[in-house]
Amino acid sequence: MNAGKNLKEGLIALEEDLVKLNDELQREAQCIPNLTHPDVPIGGEDSSTIRKMVGSVPKFSFPVKDHLQLGKELDLFDFDAAAEVSGSKFYYLKNEAVLLEMALLNWTLSEVMKRGFIPLTTPEIVRSSIVEKCGFQPRAKNTQVYSINDSDQCLIGTAEIPVGGLHMDSILAGSILPLKYVAFSHCFRTEAGAAGTATRGLYRVHQFSKIEMFIFCRPEESDYYHDELIKIEEDMFSSLGLHFKTLDMASEDLGAPAYRKFDVEAWMPGLERFGEISSASNCTDYQSRRLGIRYRPSEALVPGPKKSKGNLAPPQFVHTLNATACAVPRMIICLLENYQQEDGSVLIPEPLRPFMGGLNVITRKS
């Protein structure tokens, strides 16, 4: 009897040790980045290659203003009040800028849903473990993640994280893949170390609205869907009349989860440079292994008159992909600076007008 009791207690102790070792193994594994696609340029950001160039630098017959000056003259922002209320890198949108944000969000959602994506809104607070399993380090030095004191929770920096966790620890039927989601959320980023004139105004802020695309698919299809995501982005930015380039990002700029990443940088006349407005990443099975997301291939492993556990193909990890459909503040920068007129007004691009209550132009208040 004592021997049985000792065995039971010993088993409990071993199981506790196993949990601790699994946690340690998970933490060590999370420090290892994904592999990289063989075509990814090797090196830092300067080694990234141009995949596509659309349009040309717009020419103006008058002195160009940046979005800060336009926003002040048209009464669209209030950074000073936000700094008093919340701190630096926060902002109030006012008047037509509010309508422009809503128009961008609704137009983007409608465009992406036409392509078969399921709309979502997501939680904006998630467990730290989910952030880590998606490939981010919430408590590392210079992290971009806001952690909540005395809890195991964080504010999200992107909807990629809660959407990635949506099917955590599950086996999906192969017949329902791909699963395509388009998610609206607010995003929160510490922007640690970000300073200087290049990040002024709306370019780099602590809180913003964003619409994110996310796909769960079979491993052999992820390259195809990566191309689909970047094409959706390029089509939407082209329809807004933006001058932009798509970059195949170099290895040192991929981040831990990405196997390959395409960034889109649009011309911002007031800043006199290209600025990143979106990215599209193929994370292969890097996130799904950590999140425990698998699928059951629909075909049987061995032929048989009926399916059973013995003749079903074993479950495999899905591939995950994510892409920015619209990050609002930088889109507002692009639209104000590219569509400014000599009289100080700003035209609204044609695709957005039905979502602006018929408003075609933003003019000075009398």
Automatic annotation (TrEMBL):
It is an enzyme of class 6 (ligase). The keyword Transmembrane does not apply. Keywords: Aminoacyl-tRNA synthetase, ATP-binding, Coiled coil, Ligase, Nucleotide-binding, Protein biosynthesis. One of its GO terms (biological process) is seryl-tRNA aminoacylation. GO terms for molecular function: ATP binding; serine-tRNA ligase activity. ATP binds at residues 189-191, 205-208, 276-279. Gene3D superfamilies: Bira Bifunctional Protein, Domain 2. Residues 66-349 form the Aminoacyl-transfer RNA synthetases class-II family profile domain. PROSITE patterns: AA_TRNA_LIGASE_II. CDD domains: SerRS_core (cd00770). GO terms for cellular component: cytoplasm. SUPFAM superfamilies: Class II aaRS and biotin synthetases (SSF55681). Residues 4-31 form a coiled coil. L-serine binds at residues 158, 189, 212, 322. This is serine--tRNA ligase. The record marks 324 as: Important for serine binding. Its EC number is 6.1.1.11. NCBIfam families: serS (TIGR00414). The lineage of its organism: Eukaryota, Viridiplantae, Streptophyta, Embryophyta, Tracheophyta. InterPro entries: aa-tRNA-synt_IIb, aa-tRNA-synth_II, aa-tRNA-synth_II/BPL/LPL, Ser-tRNA-ligase_type_1, SerRS_core. It comes from the Eukaryota.
